[in-house]
Amino acid sequence: MRLANDPCALDTVSDAVDEVNKLKGQVAAAQWDEASKFDSEKDKNSFRQYEEACDRVKNFYREQHEKQTVAFNVRVRAEFKRTVHARMGIWEAIEKLNTLVDDSDPDTSLSQIEHLLQTAEAIRRDGKPEWMQVAGLVHDLGKLLYFFGSEGQWDVVGDTFVVGCKFSDRIIYPETFENNPDFHDPVYSTEYGVYSPHCGLENVMLSWGHDEYLYHVLKKQSSLPIDALYMIRYHSFYPWHREGAYSHLTNAEDQRALEAVRAFNPYDLYSKSDEPVRVEEVKPYYQALIAKYFPDVIEW
After folding, report:
1. Backbone angle region of 59, left / alpha / beta, with phi > 0 → left and psi within -120 to 50 → alpha
2. Would you say 138 and 88 are in contact if contact means Cβ atoms under 8 Å apart?
3. What's the whole-number mean pLDDT along residues 13-18?
4. Cys staple from 65: which of 41, 51, 176, 241, with CB 3.0 to 4.6 Å?
């Protein structure tokens, strides 16, 4: 076939290639967004029991809810844009994070490397794509903020929420916002605040923490697909992806992000009770995946 001299034949081949790419996308979607299997026998009701949480968890959220203001979020984002805290690879970052225990988490006291590997291994056992395994491996690396001059854990971990409008009553411990200055602000305390109806999550400001930080670090320093970045950015945004809040701010484009984070959430949440992973046994496998999606050195 001499395609150069036959425009019709060229169009036919081009259409066929487009159709193959479309089918590939459908196959990939069928893999990553199908229901998780690893957790089929787990008691889901035993997770995120915040009313029964210890004082450490309750005190954390009280502090977070009092201090996550619009003013703080504007300031810390400006600092992020002009500051490089460290330069290191992904696995080095994982090892550095290993000394942190998350004060906001009622479900586990495991080290961070154990949680990251449990998440990634659960995704791997369910046969999900490599990029999703990598998302599981790195999703909490934004907690490095704790070592980069954070003001505590309240601006690093915990469920995220929208600032700049009324605090949703679907956020855990909603009563603890009363001592946040924005709670009484004449603009920030209204339903829409500084936002317009259905402006989209890309145009709202989420409380600053490891999700938002890592999203901005990796979106320009990785080859992860957009669905992986959605999983990273919104995995702690429980008021939205679990409780259904903020429908007055979301738009049609946020539906894909919602599907992605809901597909990811079981692996993040329910893998926490799994047996610890033997790090040295799985390290070569994940180092090979890291090399596929990240440069050797990342600016944090």
Report:
1. alpha
2. no
3. 46
4. 176
**How far is it, in rounded angstroms, from Cα 213 to Cα 298?**
13
CA 262 to chain centre: 11
Structure-block tokens of residue 113: 């490397």
Q: Which comes out higher in pLDDT, residue 81 or 50?
A: 81
85-110 pLDDT, tens digit per residue, is 999 999 999 999 987 765 665 545 56
State both tokens at 276.
């610890």
Q: Which amino acid is at 132?
A: M
Instruction: Single out the residue of 294, 300, 175, 163 nearest to residue 224, CA to CA.
Output: 294
Nearest to 68 by CA among 168, 186, 136, 196: 168
